[in-house]
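[Q] Does anyone have a clean structure-token version of this?
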Amino acid sequence: VAMNKIEAIQLERASAFLVKLGFPVTSPVKVVETLGLGVLGKAESKTILIAKRAFSLGTKVLAGTLLEEQLHITHGLIDETREFQNHLLDMVLSLGEQVIGEPI
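[A] Here you go.
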């Protein structure tokens, strides 16, 4: 599915933000009409699929969706698992250490 001009800008901004955080999106991104009720993104064959709905929810949601799907691809972590949750919490705490400038 083709993106409109606004969606292309959103994707560019979301990707640039993730680069600044140190989590670049390195997988190809393909925009699709839908992935099913409530599903915004999916990692499939090392490609990130993004539902059009993710754009309408805002660039922050889009960035979060891109990050989640990239992590599934990069780290091989399965969606909705304790392992994935632990990985996300570790990332948040590591970013916190960087913000305050010292380890926990």
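[Q] Thanks! Anything notable?
[A] The CA atoms of residues 30 and 41 lie 10 Å apart.
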